[in-house]
Write a structure and sequence with these properties.
The protein is an alpha/beta fold. The chain has six helices and six strands, in the order αβαβββαβααβα. The chain has a single domain, classed as Nucleotidyltransferase, domain 5 (2-Layer Sandwich).
Length: about 200
Amino acid sequence: MFPSFSPIHPELSPGFRIINNFSDRFSFNLCNKEKNDKFHIHKLDSVVIESSLSQSIAIIAMDASIKNNIATSISYTHISNQPLVKTIYHAAFVTSSEAELFAIRYDINQALSKKNVSKIIVITDSIHVAKNIFDTLSHPLQIHAIAILEELCQFFSRNPINSIEFWKYPSCLEWYLHKAVDLEMKASNPTLVYLCKIL
């Protein structure tokens, strides 16, 4: 459950905002339009190789879509020398942005449950959704963002080297890790258990 929204929530107050206190601990890596697609895929491959060599880096690849009024979010989370964790979420009558934000929160929570993790890398094709987490202006997804900000604030406060990176991958690149998530997403065909809720 997400906390009730409050415009005076500490995470939105100027003295407590992550964007003010920990601006060097999070980053967004977009596709460089001046470079070609192969360059971006090479950068993503380098990120995966780096994470596979360190037990302090958690890498998360995720995607979300809506079929038959049901949002599905699939993510793969990996930490070196640990099994790959695959999670699938289904939620009825929510937007894909809400499903994506919930998945980000859950995956961050899972990564933070590991004692040695000091860096989280989230790879998503919905980078604009991730940016909403750090947007201090009022927006429809702010109630979800606050829950994520609370966890990140604790994570950043715990150690000065702790950080999180968001990487964008365009679906058209068919990068191998996204392709695995995307194939599973396309194979998923959820149906409502209580059909009367459609009414």
